[in-house]
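In this section we walk through a basic example: taking a raw amino acid sequence and producing a predicted 3D structure, encoded as discrete structure tokens. The instruction is simple. Fold the sequence below.
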Amino acid sequence: MKQQTEPPAPVEERTAWSGVSRELFTLGRDPLPRMSRPRWLAWLPHVLLGYAAIPCGVLTGMQLNDHYGVLGTAVLGLSLLTTASVLLSMFRPIAAWWLGLVTAALVAWAIHGHVGQGQSWPWTPVGPFTLAPVILMVALRVPPRVTVWVIGITLLLSGLAEAVFRPPHSQTMIAAVAVVFGFVGILGYALRATRLARGKLVEQETLTEEERARRTLLEERSRIARELHDVVAHHMSVISIQAQVAPHLVENPSEELKENLTGIRENALEALTELRRVLGVLRSEQPDDPANPHHPQPTLAELDGLVDNVRGAGLDVTTTIAGIRRPLTPGVELTAYRIVQEALSNCLRHAPGSRAEVGVAYGPRELHLCVANSAPTRPAPPSQGAGHGLLGMRERAGMLGGELAAGPRPDGGYEVSAVLPMDPRTDSRDGAPGSSPDLKKDA
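The resulting token sequence is shown next.
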């Protein structure tokens, strides 16, 4: 007959037990974390534990000497071991617990022959309280299941010692020890859970802020794409019409020329169709957006109307135009208008009662914008927005190969300045729209 063998323990149980055993017998370093807030009290737990270590050692020596009559160097040695276990718990909690158990065993052995009528054993009256800080430090830094094992092993060894080696007429303390260690274990678990929850909250807030910034940037890019749809569609339509008309402007055009122009027109129409199909999806998500084709795209010619609207909202705004005012490419006009609009909106939201200055300078090759405001005269109301308007402005400027800078002013105000190329196609910087590395290399 075949012998029946017991089925092996499940993998999960073996893994859990091996993990607990590693935690119980590790001597690894696990420093006590500092307090996160307030910062000036960051080292308060370490200071309190350091001060608690001294009374623990002193009380242990006093109990051995006064209540049990233990004399000699053993009293000093056990007092120092008690203090050392509390101090060690700041850096190596499991090692400190083992040292505390060894110290408790040595104390029990030292007082075994000195226990009188009604005196406690194996714990002295202060013994549980001198080991309690160590168990608290363990519960603060290890998983709850390990804390349960630590307290269980401590109580089990105490019960075995009392059952086997208990002196006559001694008093038991196992119930009081269980209450003390159970209380500090629950307290440590609660503090550890609070600390971990706070850390997770900070981590989640950081991830949420990053995700909000990323989403805002994507939304702004989508909005820019919808707004520039008409600009791109206009140019593609012009290309298609010019390719259709060109053969009629040449006397006796060759068949090869006609075929090339027909191909140009067909490619332009195909590109225009695809552009409308893709960007039509973007527009369908927000049909009421100002980028809707029924809304004409704003230009710098409408800057006066924008400023009047802002003045009507209660902001004192002055404008300064330098250089020869002239129409620019549609993309530059739209980007410049949106940057000024967003900067003035930020003044209304974050600097109530301030004075704003809008400067537009037309240079030979670049358009300079500057929106600056003075310090606010009253507190700003809480903002419900995401606070990422600068991302959109930088994205718009970078799309054209321009630059945007923003920051506080010495007088307490704020300033946003941008430099946009007049014709992005002729911008010579690396990575600018319309620039070609090959053309730069050939030049």
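Looking at the output, two observations stand out. The beta strands are 316-322, 355-362, 366-373, 403-408, 414-421. Residues 1-7, 290-294, 426-443 have pLDDT under 50 and may be disordered. In the next section we compare this with other chains.
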